[in-house]
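hey so i finally got around to running the thing on that chain from the lab meeting. sorry it took forever, my laptop kept dying and i had to restart like 3 times. anyway pasting the input first so we r on the same page abt which one it is
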Amino acid sequence: MNNTKKIYVIGCGNTLAGDDGVGIVVLRRLMEKDIPDKVEFIEAGIPGLSLVELMLGAEKAVLVDSFLGGDAPGRVVRFSESELPPVGYNAGQSHGIGLREALSFARGVMPEGFPREVVVVGVEIERPERWVEGLSPAIAAAVDEAVDMVYAEVLAGA
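ok and heres what got predicted. didnt touch it at all, straight out
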């Protein structure tokens, strides 16, 4: 019997929209670390509602994305599924979906294939900028903290 848990780390964002690409940057940096074989990396881009499909088959999913919070650009926050803010707050849903609602719907429709645990590691940004590559200094400075937070989630789920 194989009791190895499968963990998906899903990086979201648009690398051609400035700070909105931070989820992809964190994912790529994490891929350079010594990671257990049971971890699968998925570069999702801007998945919309198809994000829930990308999680199917995992025991745990760790989403990495930017969010607009109105507090401090560069702040790194861990949200469990139950802690996700409401739709108006915009954490984990900067691409036009209400993540909390999408996860709830997916659990109701396909409970057997959906991860038991979903965690969002978000990096607060001021606003995405179209056709700009690279991260602003405040967001670039937060990448290491976000990588460490995701890495801890991976090890905790292993």
